[in-house]
Design the sequence.
């Protein structure tokens, strides 16, 4: 059995489904020179998956990016790769409240999933980056994550002849931080996940959701008012909200968006996460402080945590115990089950 077969055998059922989707997308997305073919869009996702003009999605760039994503050479101590925190068996998120980086440094925020990153306009919990090409280089340099200066990154990747040949073939030059960012971003754009039970239900399959999940769907869009923030194909408005999760003992443990904008009113605001595959991305919130979907529902049922900048949209829900269970059942229906 070759390395590829061994890797596939090790994948969880969820990760195998995602791997099928990635393979289909990378094969059919115009990665072959001169091809007009595009990957079939997974059910429930936007038909348009934007790709910047200066980083066309090609088979070569995706292949280099995938190899880099799983390569610990990108971390200072050669022990951490992108996939150490963005785990394929966990919907490309992590199981820890916050992740451990190089030299076992402890991060400050929960690792979000990178599935469907192709559809996002900003990245990270505070929205500090507006392109995947910029974003992918941030954790490499961050002293609490991979802790590798970009000068050293370039030296390491250039020192490996197979990387050097691949970059010259694909980019016409030796590896640089810019082209490394282009390759990693290309791979991330292939990680799409749709075809969840909710998508099949919306497409007309009335049996795709249980009766409890259907009740949860009605609550999600009605009494619970979740769609105020969790809207569209990604179940996220892409905006920033203060729910009070960072408010402790009359101060913020993390000022969130305000650290980027400098605006007082942005204190404690964090980007609305996508709810796709949310049942397999625990723990939740920017700090990983909620262990289960039931905990999250309970938090919002209570109206968040009061603080001077709480979003006025966050109000007590007063759900019954049955309604809370139904809402959790609906959230579980957002996990992809198909091969695309």
Sequence:
């Amino acid at each position: 059995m070759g390395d590829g077969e061994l890797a596939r055998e090790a994948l969880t059922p969820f990760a195998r489904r995602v791997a099928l989707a990635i393979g289909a997308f990378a094969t059919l997305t115009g990665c072959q020179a001169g091809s007009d073919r595009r990957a079939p869009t997974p059910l429930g996702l936007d038909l348009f998956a934007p790709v910047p003009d200066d980083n066309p999605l090609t088979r070569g760039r995706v292949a280099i990016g995938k190899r880099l994503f799983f390569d610990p050479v990108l971390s200072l101590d050669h022990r951490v790769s992108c996939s150490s925190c963005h785990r394929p068996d966990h919907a490309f998120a992590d199981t820890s409240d916050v992740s451990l980086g190089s030299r076992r440094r402890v991060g400050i925020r929960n690792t979000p999933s990178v599935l469907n990153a192709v559809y996002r306009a900003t990245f990270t919990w505070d929205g500090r980056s507006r392109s995947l090409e910029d974003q992918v280089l941030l954790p490499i340099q961050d002293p609490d994550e991979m802790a590798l200066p970009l000068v050293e990154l370039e030296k390491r990747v250039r020192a490996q002849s197979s990387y050097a040949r691949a970059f010259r073939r694909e980019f016409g030059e030796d590896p640089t931080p810019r082209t490394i960012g282009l390759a990693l971003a290309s791979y991330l754009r292939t990680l799409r996940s749709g075809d969840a039970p909710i998508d099949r239900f919306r497409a007309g399959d009335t049996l795709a959701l249980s009766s409890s999940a259907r009740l949860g769907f009605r609550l999600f869009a009605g009494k619970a008012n979740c769609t105020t923030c969790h809207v569209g194909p990604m179940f996220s408005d892409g905006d920033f909200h203060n729910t009070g999760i960072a408010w402790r003992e009359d101060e913020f443990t993390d000022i969130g968006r305000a650290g980027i904008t400098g605006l007082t009113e942005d204190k404690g605001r964090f980007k609305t996460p996508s709810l796709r595959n949310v049942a397999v991305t625990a723990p939740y919130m920017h700090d990983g402080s909620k262990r289960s979907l039931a905990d999250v529902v309970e938090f919002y049922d209570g109206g968040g945590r009061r603080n001077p900048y709480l979003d006025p949209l966050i109000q007590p829900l007063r759900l019954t115990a049955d309604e809370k269970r139904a809402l959790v059942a609906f959230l579980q229906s957002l996990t992809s089950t198909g091969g695309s």
About this structure: The chain has 14 helices and four strands. The first strand starts at residue 240 and ends at 242. The chain has two domains: 3-189, 197-332.
